[in-house]
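Please, structure for the following, as tokens.
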Amino acid sequence: MRKPKISVLGASNYDLVNYIRTYPKPGETIHGLKFHTSCGGKGANQAVMAAKLGAEVSLITKIGNDIFGKAMLKNLLDMGISNKHIYISEKTHSGIATIMVGEDGNNSIVVIPGACSEITDEEFAKAEKTIASSDIFICQLEIPLDINLKAMRTAAKNNVRTIFNPSPCPENIPSEMLSLCTLLCLNEIETEQLTGTQNPEKAAKELICKGPREILITLGTKGAFYFSENEKFFVAAEKVNAVDTTGAGDCFLGTFAYFYANGETASSAVKKACHAAALSVCSQGAQSSYPSAEEVKG
């Protein structure tokens, strides 16, 4: 199997994870169970998972010149990800994500983007050739929207398939972004925010009219739903004892992108993505919980 070329534009954040029994009420102080740190950020997470499976990955991101940035850079290089477009800010701290994980494994996250919000037009311009030569381009919304839009235009101009993950989901996504993406991948909350419905098929039918050729909705413990003009299917999630769901959606997307870029059918790619995500929630952390290529490929 050849190495697909995948470029990812997105955030690299350092995760500060608190494991708790119950969520504190306003004004309340509680004791947590334990504390964990790891490398994260949607873009970096997706890039790491694709790289672990064997893709040639370029990550376009920005980190601070601090202990968090140094740790993230080392981790990305250790994963074999190109640092050609990993930019370093001398004036702003690295992106930080404060995460609370309940006993059921579900989480709540607050992201302070820091350097991730400072990717400049000049830095983006340096990465255009990388995007244009990719098999698949992936982007989310943890970095400035205008940079994402420029990148999507570059991908479309060069006939590069674009996977758009609209997270965090703003109140108003420019219609052009939806029309430029090849595949729209979103979770249940984002689906409802964009369509007002929790019904995956109804939402997918509405979203596909706005431009994407394919819709992929992740449904947490239920699985995932895929929809296009020619095909629709549901893949049930594997039953596991979840410890920490942090980064599971990114694990799913990075896995899907790898197999889809390699020419596998949507059905096969989604099944493998569901398997990888199920394995990831059985361990703590985001990238640190991601399965190996051997575990995913069997």
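The chain has a mean pLDDT of 95. The domain at 5-297 is CATH 3.40.1190.20 (UDP-N-acetylmuramoyl-L-alanine:D-glutamate ligase).
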